[in-house]
Amino acid sequence: MKLNNIPQIKHSDSGNFFLLAGPCAIEGEEMALNIAETILKITDKLEIPFIFKGSFKKANRSRIDSFTGIGDEKALKILRKVSETFKVPTVTDIHERADAAKAAEYVDVLQIPAFLVRQTDLVVAAAETGKVVNLKKGQFMSPESMKHAVTKVTDCNNEQVMVTDRGTMFGYQDMIVDFRGIPTMRQFAPTVLDVTHSLQQPNQSSGVTGGRPDMIETIARAGIATGADGIFIETHFDPSTAKSDGANMLDIQYLEKLLTNLTAIRKTINSFE
């Protein structure tokens, strides 16, 4: 995948890592536009290629009463408005074959959730849209096995594919990141580290996923140091009131400092290379 092939991507020649960032789910138009504008100001300042992330619906929920979205078409139209307003590419995750063609009308990158990355029909449907496909590594999969997921995309004559590590299950209620996986998966495709989901604490008795946001910078720094091409961060103005994944999201007030520090590390890594 060539970063500058993504529509409206900025700063693709800066030598910096690229960033997929935004709220876990689209909760409304105002919040999405405000978050996108805030991130864009920071990424323009630091010359970070930026893709706005927001889920148009949430299908993987622990409880039946969990928030799943504001309506598919309504959320997808908000993603399109973000793109048109700020001239940035957008990414959303899909869960069913029919979602691929539907979401492809509105966004630039289709993301396959980690739990679904072995679903061949879903991956092929995403690939056949011609959009960039972001494959989340299953929490139950080795880095080496992601080669086969990548091949499913490229066998559909779509070379626009990247891989995202979002941690590996450790016991029942924790995630760990094996940083050896980053150089391994970079052999197959550009590789992103999903910092916030890697700090989830799933399978809580309450049915609400926990998290360790205090470790976001630690994990992100290590990801850049080990060669990640991109960083994935879910962020919100008030994670405590977020309708999905609030426990592991980054409060947006801390985003500029984090990205400034990561940019400094990336410059050092580039000087080694």
From TrEMBL:
UniProt-annotated location(s): Cytoplasm
Q: Which UniProt keywords apply?
A: Cytoplasm, Transferase
Q: This chain belongs to which protein, by name?
A: 3-deoxy-8-phosphooctulonate synthase
Cite the DAHP synthetase I/KDSA domain residue spans from the record. Answer: 9-266
Reactions it catalyzes: D-arabinose 5-phosphate + phosphoenolpyruvate + H2O = 3-deoxy-alpha-D-manno-2-octulosonate-8-phosphate + phosphate
Q: Which Gene3D superfamilies match?
A: Aldolase class I
> Which InterPro entries would you find in this protein's record?
Aldolase_TIM (IPR013785), DAHP1/KDSA (IPR006218), KDO8P_synthase (IPR006269)
